[in-house]
Amino acid sequence: MDTNIPLTVLYDKRCVLCRRLRKWLEEQPKYVEMKFIEAASKEACYRFPDVDHNRTLTELTVISDNGWVYKGEKAWVICLWALQEYREWAVTLSSPELFPLAQRMIMWVSSNRFKISKLLG
Length: 121
What we know:
alpha+beta, 7 helices, 4 strands
């Protein structure tokens, strides 16, 4: 992937955890620019008509300017890959040995995000 291609992150604005993670991502030094758009918003539907927008409300989706679409666990890894301080983590987590563990962990967080959000307030 070209490191100069910005990423668009579709996030669920209804989720406190998602909003906090967006803020955290925005604050991190980056190798790759990240834009954030509300999942299933008019803007997201207009810009990405081929994306399943109902699914973006339940699964993190990241889209590169060259059209590559990353969903779920791969979207989380690509977000880490874009960050200066976490690129090595992304490479490590995407290895064949660790990716299955990363998938399970991310799926657990995703399926419990509203419960986690309640705890965060």
